Amino acid sequence: MNRLTSQRQLSWLLVFCVLALSSAQAFAIREEAEFFVSVTVPTSEFFVLPVNPGFLEREQVMSYNPVTERLSPLRELFDVKNVLGGINARLGFEPVLSNGRDLIVLQVTFNGQRLDLTDTLVVPEAEAKAGKRVQLMIAATPPEDGYVGGAYYGSVQIIFDALRP
Asked: What is the pLDDT of residue 102?
């Protein structure tokens, strides 16, 4: 009878272990991640694209340095190409940041050329035909009386045109 009791105890122990292991799997922690992947392949004839594709998709922040009382400029690299000729650029409107009352004027340069509301040649024909990586820079023009505190917002619109000979 001792042997029978030992076998029952062993059987119950085995059943308990199986149940314990299966219940541990039922409560296992699981993580899943889903994300989307996309790509834009430009035409080989003409393109003006930021090297960092996220640049155009999110708000860009100009940092304020309280020691120098200056705003840091935004800099971003662009890949450009036009197999038929040069590339012109112009602003869609005057670029400013505003807090609803005060304005901060922005200066926009592309490939070292300052942009305004009129067409400006920003990539000459020889460079555009080969393709080139150039810099966009957006800098604040400091007000004469200094910056007034507040949260400022604005946007910059640049229009690029492919030139033909």
From this structure: 93
H helix or E strand, kind and range, residue 129:
helix 125-130
Cα dihedral value 52, 57, 112, 158, nearest 10: 140
Closest CA to 86 of 130, 134, 35: 130
What's this model's pTM, rounded to 2 decimal places?
Answer: 0.73
- CATH class belonging to 47-162: mainly beta
Cα Rg of the chain (Å, integer): 31
Distances in Å between the Cα of 155 and the Cα atoms of 108, 121, 141 are 11, 22, 15
Distance CA 155, CA 165 (A): 32
- What does the pLDDT look like over 67-125, one tens digit per residue? 999 999 999 999 999 999 999 999 999 999 999 999 999 999 999 999 999 999 999 99
Domain boundaries, the chain: 47-162
CA dist., res. 55 & res. 49, Å (int): 10
Rounded CA gap, 126 and 146, in Å?
A: 42
